[in-house]
Amino acid sequence: MPRSAPPSDDPVIEVRDLRMTYGTTEVLTGVDLTVDAGEVVCLLGPNGAGKTTTIEILEGFRLPSAGEVRVLGEDPAHAGDAWRARVGVVLQSWRDHARWTPRRLLDQLGGYYAAYGTPERPRPYAVDWLLEVVGMAEFADRKIGTLSGGQRRRLDVAVGIIGRPELLFLDEPTAGFDPQARRDFHDLVHRLSDLEGTSILLTTHDLDEAEKLADRILILADGRIVADGSPDALARQVAGTSEVRWACGRERYVHGTDDVVAFVRGLFEQHGDELTDLEVRHASLEDTYLAMVQRSETGAPAAPALVEVTR
């Protein structure tokens, strides 16, 4: 895979006071968010929170009621084909072209992107390479209608990235994947972000997946972003302290601390080789997510959102 030019300092997504109303129902009540170049951001939220509406507005498939939206420097609602060629979308399912083969479909779709390639970012990806990367090489010439659900999902991913996008939207990307396919997909996401500089905004209900993939987590609840930060930073907002468990021989101890490194260093200075076990427990992303959503739903004051990202 050829390396791309270094990511730009300009955000690839900028959203300010985004609002969406259906009839008398306010779905989005003032969403603010930013995604930087090369960043992997996961949008979490309960059903009905407005995740799909937000993503569809960013993709240019839905007009907002109010607010400012800039994606790759343009308003998605009025952007043209050249902008569209820079964006990849992996929908929850692709069910067309049952009589085609994956190779033929990708060849056909890839042809649309060739005119929008640049010396720094040639388009599209080579079909054989892409089929290999998504684990579909051995099924490349089978009719799509005969593929299993997992194989179709791998093809969905290939369809979404065939144009070598600068920005990729992933909607529940690993639904239907077996554990090996999920691991392969996670490797692909890291490859796209690290080597290609591709910016990725994904939605998932798999919190373990979100924690593994995301540089930053956004939690959408009650029509707005209620939390923004790295998984570790958000956990510190909710938990405040971490739990350290250790043992000296048969004696076991537990202590809460907000400075794990200093506390553990003190344990080694005090006990040294007498330590027979040591474990540090942080609040999980699931703990954090549920606490943030509950705060929003009950109207309890939430801690200030963090924008602390470590790449």
Automatic annotation (TrEMBL):
Which UniProt keywords are present, listed alphabetically? Antibiotic resistance, ATP-binding, Nucleotide-binding, Transport
Annotated compartments:
Cell membrane
The record describes its membrane topology as: Peripheral membrane protein
Named from the GO MF annotations, one term is: ATP binding
Which SUPFAM superfamilies does this UniProt record tie to the protein?
A: P-loop containing nucleoside triphosphate hydrolases (SSF52540)
Name under which the protein is recorded: ABC-2 type transport system ATP-binding protein
Q: Which domain of life is it from?
A: Bacteria
Q: Which InterPro entries match?
A: AAA+_ATPase, ABC_transporter-like_ATP-bd, ABC_transporter-like_CS, ABC_transporter_ATP-binding, P-loop_NTPase
Asked if Manganese is a keyword of the record, the answer is no
Organism encoding this protein: Geodermatophilus obscurus
Q: What is the lineage of its organism?
A: Bacteria, Bacillati, Actinomycetota, Actinomycetes, Geodermatophilales
Q: Which SMART domains match?
A: AAA
